[in-house]
Amino acid sequence: MAHQRCIFHKLKQLGDHLVFGDLQVEPTDDVDKATHQAQRQWKKAVLVDASWVYDGASEADIRQRAETFRETWADREPNAVANFGVDVDQTLGEF
After folding, report:
1. Cα torsion for 20, 25, 30, 33, to the nearest 10°?
2. What pLDDT, in 10s, does the model give residues 11-61?
3. Cβ contact 18:80 at 8 Å
4. Three state DSSP letters for 69-84
5. Which residue would you say has higher pLDDT here, 4 or 83?
6. What 8-state DSSP symbol labels residue 3?
7. Is residue 80 within 8 Å of residue 6, measured between CB atoms?
8. What pLDDT, on a 0 to 100 scale, did the predictor assign at position 1?
9. Backbone angles phi, psi at 4, to 5 degrees
10. Which among 28, 13, 29 is positioned nearest to 84, based on CA atoms?
11. Which class for 27: exposed (0-12), middle (13-18), buried (19 or more C-beta within 10 A)?
12. What is the structure's pLDDT at 27?
């Protein structure tokens, strides 16, 4: 039997693959703090969009939402988006 993970863990794994490629950091005296804050905001934006994918009402809706997510984030987070796409496909295969 295939190993099944809950959506929380799928999203956590997505977060683990983020590299923050186009991260914009506000100029400040405390660069580390500003970078950390920018990374948190970036991660939150990605995870909010990814969680929206799983709120689809049907398989077709979830697939369309996953495509929208891919189009939004693939250029900025290609590894994370590719990994997430595999998770979405596996989730849909479990239905």
Report:
1. -40
2. 999 999 999 877 777 777 788 888 899 999 999 999 999 999 999 999 999
3. yes
4. HHHHHCCCCHHHHHHH
5. 83
6. -
7. no
8. 40
9. -110, 130
10. 13
11. exposed
12. 78
